[in-house]
Write a structure and sequence with these properties.
By secondary structure, the chain is an alpha+beta fold. 21% of the residues lie in helices and 34% in strands. It has helices at residues 6-20, 32-35, 133-137, 180-198, and strands at residues 27-31, 46-50, 54-62, 68-74, 78-88, 95-101, 119-123, 152-160, 166-176.
């Protein structure tokens, strides 16, 4: 007699529900409106500390020449899944962001050696509501990466390219690294579901 698949389906339903549930409102970890300017010194970035599971937002106001440097820590056992551009105050505009591993930004803003960057990207109003983490990973000439980013300390450099000030919010989305057993069980459940769907009706 074939074992019932109900527990597997229940687990799959829970996984789908969690994956499709709308994210909770991001907790602000820094806003230049109330917390002051982010550091303009690449060797002494604003240290924002460990990111909590879920979504943590950083809001900055920038204009050409106003550089923002800040570092975040992805704790052990967690990963950075996305950096969602959740707000951008200009209808047109272009901003720049780059990232390096470590607690400082080693490259100067002038004469930057892109090969020493983990990644870089441009972003603007057309990307509101989407993640720019994959764009960072695909920056031409940089070391590059494929999201998610693993545990570690990362320092970001951001600034507006144009002469009009822009305020933008970046939501850093962090989750626990799936345990191998959980991933394998989910794959097994998906396989069982696919096999059941392929079985002809009696």
């Amino acid at each position: 007699m074939r074992a019932p698949l109900r527990p597997v389906f229940a687990m799959l339903a829970l996984a789908v529900a969690l994956a499709s549930a709308p994210g909770a409102q991001a907790a602000s970890i820094w806003s230049e409106v109330g917390d002051g300017d982010l550091s303009g010194n690449r060797l002494a970035p604003t240290a924002l500390g460990a990111l909590a599971a879920g979504s943590s937002s950083v809001t900055a106001t920038s204009v050409a020449g106003d550089r923002e440097y800040f570092s975040v820590v992805v704790p052990a056992g967690f990963q950075l899944d996305a950096i969602v551009l959740s707000a951008y105050s200009l209808a047109s505009g272009l901003s720049f962001v780059a990232v390096q591993s470590g607690a400082t930004f080693t490259e100067p803003s002038s004469g930057t050696n892109v090969a020493n960057l983990l990644g870089w990207a441009h972003f603007g109003p057309g990307q509101v509501g989407t993640t720019i983490l994959d764009d960072l990973g695909a920056g031409t000439g940089a070391q590059g990466f494929t999201p998610p980013l693993p545990a570690g300390t990362y320092t970001f450099w951001s600034q507006e390219v144009g002469s009009t000030a822009v305020t933008y919010t970046l939501d850093f989305q962090v989750s626990a690294v799936p345990e191998p057993g959980t991933a394998a069980l989910l794959a097994l459940g998906l396989g069982a579901l696919a096999a059941r769907r392929r079985r002809p009706a009696r």
